[in-house]
Each structure stands twice: as C-alpha cells, then as structure tokens.
C-alpha cells in the first residue's frame, strides 16, 4: 500500500485531487493500492508526518499560514526520502526555481492539471520509489538473488562508466563534467 499525503488550503482542490488519484489503476503501481490522507492545514500535515510514514507528498504552493516551500522544507526534516510535488496555479518563475532548488522537487504540476498527466506522474514517482527501495534491498541480497534489472544496470555501467550515477552539488543541481575535447569547448 502506498501512502500519499495531499496538502492544500482549499477543500475542493483536495477533493478533486483525491478523486483523480483514486482512479490510478493498481497495475500501474505494482498492484498496490493508494491510501490518501488530505490536509487543509500544513501544520496538521506536519503533525501527521511525525506519526506516519508516507510514500509521496503533494502540496499547494500558496497557502495562508505557510507556503509550499516552507511546508516541504519542514516535511523533509521529518521524512527526507519522500518524493515531493508542488501542484499550483502560481506561476512565478523565481518561486518555481526556488521550490525546486530548496526542496528537491520530484515534479511541479501546474493547476489546472490534466487528470491523466497527474495520475501518470504519481504512478511514475511511486514506481521509481519502489524500484529504489528494491534496488537497496537487492544490493544487500546474495548475488544469485539480484534481479535482471540489476544485471542490466551493471552491463550499462561497464559499457559507459558513470551512466548509472548522477553527481549533485550541495544545492541538488546535477554536475556534468565535460572534457576539453567536447564540442562545447570548440
């Protein structure tokens, strides 16, 4: 079962998000069902995050008592490995960039959202989270029990060293090293 937290100060938005996500086909998320908890108060959501683990959190950006970046920053202190998504009609470019940089967002989804795209994004994020957990478990498993995908990743790494690893700076930005022979230097 995947536990999803929704945070938005508007009850009608929470209801619409819940209805939309409830239609995700369990086969899209490894056959597991969603358990959705919705909060109109970011403070109440933070209290709940102290009591229960979640697999995904979706938050509005503009809320009266705390904006989405502040909420997700505080949420990250409690559950740092949970993917974070902001769903907002607020389209200030600088605010979006700050949200991505400060909270390592998995996605930013513009309101009004497309239901199919939202469901697809959530299913993708949860699927990636499940694969990450399984990869950690298989790394600790005996060599004979590792999955075919682990073997494929090792094969890719042998062909193109570094392809399966992403280096990030302290702000979460992706670091890319270029050789002086690369086209960008010519």
Write the layout of secondary structure elements.
Elements: E1 2-7, H1 11-22, E2 34-39, H2 42-51, E3 56-59, H3 68-78, E4 84-88, H4 93-103, E5 107-110, H5 115-140, H6 148-159
Parallel strand pairs: 1-2, 1-3, 3-4, 4-5
Helix pairs in contact: 2-3, 3-4
Structure characterization notes:
By secondary structure, this protein is an alpha/beta fold. It folds into 2 domains: 135 residues, Response regulator (Rossmann fold, 3-Layer(aba) Sandwich), CATH 3.40.50.2300; 42 residues, no CATH class. Helices cover 44% and strands 13% of the residues. The protein is built from 6 helices and 5 strands. Strand 4, helix 4 and strand 5 form a beta-alpha-beta unit. Helix 2 runs parallel beside helix 3 and helix 3 runs parallel beside helix 4. The termini are far apart.
Strand proportion: 5-15%
CATH class of the largest domain: Alpha Beta
Overall tally of structural domains: 2
What is the mean predicted local confidence, pLDDT? 81
**Biggest beta sheet attributes:** 5 strands, parallel
| Annotated CATH topology of the largest domain | Rossmann fold
Q: H/E element string?
A: EHEHEHEHEHH
The general outline is: globular
What is the count of β-strands? 5
CATH architecture of the largest domain: 3-Layer(aba) Sandwich
What's the alpha carbon Rg, rounded to whole Å?
19 Å
Please name the fourth-level CATH homologous superfamily of the largest domain: Response regulator
Helical fraction equals 40-55%
How many alpha or pi helices?
6
Low-confidence stretches: 137-147
Strand order of the largest sheet: 2-1-3-4-5
Cα separation of the termini: 52 Å
């Amino acid at each position: 079962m995947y536990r999803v937290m929704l945070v938005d100060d508007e009850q009608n938005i929470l209801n619409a998000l819940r209805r939309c996500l409830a239609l995700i086909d369990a086969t899209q998320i490894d056959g597991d069902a969603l358990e959705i908890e919705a909060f109109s108060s970011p403070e109440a959501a933070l209290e709940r995050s102290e009591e229960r683990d979640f697999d995904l959190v979706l938050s509005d950006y503009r809320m009266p008592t705390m904006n989405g970046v502040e909420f997700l920053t505080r949420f990250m202190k409690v559950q740092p490995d949970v993917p974070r998504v902001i769903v907002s009609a607020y389209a200030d470019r600088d605010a979006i960039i700050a949200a991505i940089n400060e909270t390592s967002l998995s996605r930013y989804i513009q309101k009004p959202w497309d239901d199919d795209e939202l469901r697809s994004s959530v299913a993708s994020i949860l699927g990636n989270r499940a694969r990450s957990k399984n990869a950690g478990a298989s790394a600790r498993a005996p060599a004979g029990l590792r999955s075919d995908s682990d073997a494929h990743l090792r094969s890719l790494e042998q062909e193109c060293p570094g392809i399966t690893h992403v280096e990030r700076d302290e702000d979460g930005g992706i670091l890319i090293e270029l050789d002086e022979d690369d086209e960008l230097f010519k």
